[in-house]
Fold this protein.
Amino acid sequence: MRRLLLCALALCILFSAVPLGYAEAPEGLEQLIYESHKYNREADITDYKLTYEEFDAIFDKMAAEGKLPWYAETGYSYSYNEVSQLLLSVTPMVSDPKVYDRTLYAQKLAAFTEKCILPGMTPLQIALSVHDQLALHNIYDESLAKNTGYDLLVHGTTVCAGYANLYTQILNSAGVPCITVTSDEMNHAWNLVQLDGSWYHVDVTWDDPTADIYGRVRHTYFLLTDAEISTGEEPHYGWDSALPCTNTRYADAYWRNVENPILFESSSTSYLLRNEDWDNYIYRRDEATGQETLLFSDTDHYVDVDDGGYAFVHRGLSLAEGRLYFNRQDTICSMNTDGSDVKTEYTYDTKANNRFIYGFWLDGDTLQLSLANRDYETETRQQTLAHLSDRHVHSFTVTQQAPTCIAEGYTLSVCDCGLQAESDHLPSAGHDLKVSAKKAATFFEAGYEEGYCVNCQQETSQEIPKINFAFWFLDNYKYMLIGLGVILLITIFSPSGKRKK
Ligand SMILES: [Zn+2]
Ligand SMILES: [Zn+2]
């Protein structure tokens, strides 16, 4: 009986040292990795007892789900125990600030998001608007040297990973669930977006034609099912997500054959251009009812270049300062958003150049023109529209906000219009507390601890609750049992004394 008691005692002590095994991302690890990237500092992950493979899978999943705060680099270096092969720490890969200016990126991202995402927009409108504006602003980098969302926003050129990662980041920030999926077999990346509980494929890259024609954005790969994206002339395959995309709700959506950006004036009104039998029609769309009102039609599509007249399709629709801009064969025109007051903004000499205006978009006050010859070989030209130079252009004043005891520090960019962007975050310092008065708790009475922060002087007062006997016993019974055991052993093995009578 005594031996049994000692065995139980030994087991109790052993149990408290058994490590736990992890199958999923363990609690707290994602937050630790997020903060290590946000604050650009090493994270000690020794306690998580992960192999490189286990950690890398968690890291890749976080990157795909847009849970890392910065998309210029998503890599890390690590240290590990050579005997156990378990990771000790991970450190974000530091990007060269001369190459990746985080403050500039934050400003570009804030301006881009403000332009795409208007107050009151639905998740569907956000997914559509961001898709269209990303394709509009980017030229696919055929040299494959640029591959980040940074490259897209700052340089206007990237490859699929750049489009997909930025799309994930912007949609998640706007509260629309979105992940990046990749296919090693295709060497390609795109997105899955969740709307009303169903997941859909979105491939911004493939909706942005190469070679780039300014102003052209297709909607061939916007909100597709697994079946739809796996079939057709250019099927997708081998993507690394098991999320099912089966809802056919958008199979025949109104945007399917629209090859221009759909322009949102507000969450209730948008504008789009349709091409039917070579003719172009510009519509205003009531977003609540889906009703389209015709604003302008252009059936004059015969151009005279290389001594011959022939039909062509021209594309281009932009919205600036409350007017719609569109192109015809040799002119860029503008009109009010009700279709009135059509004006010629720019005229191109098709005869002298043997080219016509094939597409355009309005980048601030600059017309970005694609000019094609008879074989649809394009060249580009920039043309400033002087009257648009007066519009508001964001200009940021940059200040440093030092971290305080309770708030993180950051670089703050503010424009006169109120637009703000934060970058280069530093963790809050935490209070440096000094105890000024203390009374310990007992079984019968609560105690307290009073103090103040030596940096911000904030006073703190904390009650220390009465000691709960049951919890105290659970915390301390091992020691009591050890003590009891020692007393028993001493009693049993000590030589019996002689009593004097
Ligand atoms: Zn501004
Ligand atoms: Zn403080």
Summary: The two ends are 34 Å apart (CA to CA). Residues 392, 394, 415-417, 419 surround zinc ion (ligand 1) (CB under 6 Å). Confidence is low (pLDDT under 50) at residues 1-23.
